Amino acid sequence: MPTPPDTSKTLKLERYNNYLRKFHSTKLITASSKLLFRATLLIALILILFFTINYPPLSDAPHHVPPHHRLHHHSLLSTSLFSAGGSAAWEKQVRLSSTPRRTNGFSVLVTGAAGFVGSHCSLALKKRGDGVLGLDNFNNYYDPSLKRARQNLLSKHQVFIVEGDLNDGPLLTKLFDVVPFTHVLHLAAQAGVRYAMQNPQSYISSNIAGFVNLLEVAKAANPQPSIVWASSSSVYGLNTENPFSERDRTDQPASLYAATKKAGEEIAHTYNHIYGLSLTGLRFFTVYGPWGRPDMAYFFFTKDILQGKSIDIYKTHDQKEVARDFTYIDDVVKGCLGALNTAEKSTGSGGKKKGAAQLRVYNLGNTSPVPVGRLVSILEGLLSKKAKKHVITMPRNGDVPFTHANVTLAFKDFGYKPTTDLSTGLRKFVKWYISFYGIQSKTRKESQATGESG
Fold it and tell me: Which top-level enzyme class is recorded in the Swiss-Prot or TrEMBL entry (predicted)?
């Protein structure tokens, strides 16, 4: 009987070949998985970058979404800038903008730099040779295109505005790491008395949480900056003493906006007491002028009069005229710069107080209240058009019927003296308004079209 062939070697060879096939197959699958993972990650990063760049701006955000939910998009974008490949270019812009050109010049962080008062103060500081870096979230409480126009104006004067939010701690910390600011002019806030009834959370987020976040970063900075910040005449609330003095009581706010500004003054006291921050609060009285805020009466009165719409003129519940201490923007800017010039250095270092620090509060007003009816009469004359007036009783929405500033203290400490009367200031505003919105050119085109059709 023949011996069966020896197949053991063949079996071993097949097993070995199977092992090799399985091994290479596993390696291929592993390599393919890694490649697929990396490709997926790359595609995801590309999509994130695409949507970041092409995501609709804040002005196009749906109106039913509260502004305090909308305003963080650009903040996140700014934060990504300094952590991404563009960090060097971004830091160069930040340093260049904040470097003073005059001997012993200030290096100032201006929050709310694309706002009304912020843009004017930034220009004034830059023109005298100080370094200025802006910070603004460009939210859409009012038309962001006006803020963008102010930004363009500042850019022409080499003022760079970082697009970000006060509540973005890492961004603020980065700014203070890059620049040893000597001063902060803190003007960013959620403004407006009536809007607080529609969106109260935006006031808490900006005026309280945002202010605390700024102070937290400033207290830890070395050196600590001196801080001048915007309070408001609204803190006088139900006070009946006239004119309003810094010595008058401010514990009866008539609106949530006023309450947040009063809270800011108490918070400032706390950070001054514990951390040695030098803090100066400025109570603004109805600031107006070119590049102003569209939510202010003089601004939308001008718009509505030109468009032939009726305007509401408020009377008090006892049928008295509502009056305001209208303060022209140039006078307020002088007050802000005067406060910065006389602000003493903070006494803390790295969050630890080393001595008593300066704590001040001042009124910045015009000292001559004007009835709102008189404001309308002046505008009628400047616009050569009668207003359609609708006189109504002032609603109980937190507005106060009368404001009048006593500025003796500001005059004594830094020579604050308003020089612009309402007629002169409104004439400058109307001239700017007509130019900015192209009113005269529109009127000419309309009249030419009427003439041609006739």
Answer: isomerase
| Alpha-carbon torsion, ordered 54, 59, 64, 69, to 10 deg | 70
Closest CA to 133 of 101, 108, 170, 114: 108
Neighbours of 209 (CB within 10 A): 16
CB 94 within 8 Å of CB 179: yes
Cα distance between residue 322 and residue 372, in whole Å: 6
State which residues form the domain around 174.
72-288+328-366+403-419
Task: Tell me if 387 sits within 8 A of 379, measured CB to CB.
Answer: yes
Q: Is the peptide bond before 294 cis (omega within 30 degrees of 0)?
A: no
pTM score? 0.80
The string of pLDDT tens digits covering residues 232-284 is 999 999 888 889 999 999 999 999 999 999 999 999 999 999 999 999 999 99
| Cα 397 to Cα 193: distance, rounded to the nearest angstrom | 8
Burial of 283 (0-12, 13-18, 19+ CB in 10 A): buried
Mean pLDDT for 352-368 is 95
Long-range Cβ pairs for the range 81-84 (8 Å, 24+): 82/171, 82/174
Question: What's the CATH code of the domain at 196?
Answer: 3.40.50.720
Q: Is residue 41 part of a domain?
A: no
Instruction: Report how far residue 1's alpha carbon sits from residue 233's, in angstroms, rounded to the nearest whole number.
Output: 119
Report if residue 67 sits inside a domain: no
Residues belonging to the active site: 257
Helix or strand (DSSP H, E) at 186: strand 183-186
Could you give the C-alpha distances from 192 to 15, 254, 400, in angstroms and in order?
A: 82, 13, 13
Count of structural domains, the chain = 1
d(CA 286, CA 299): 12
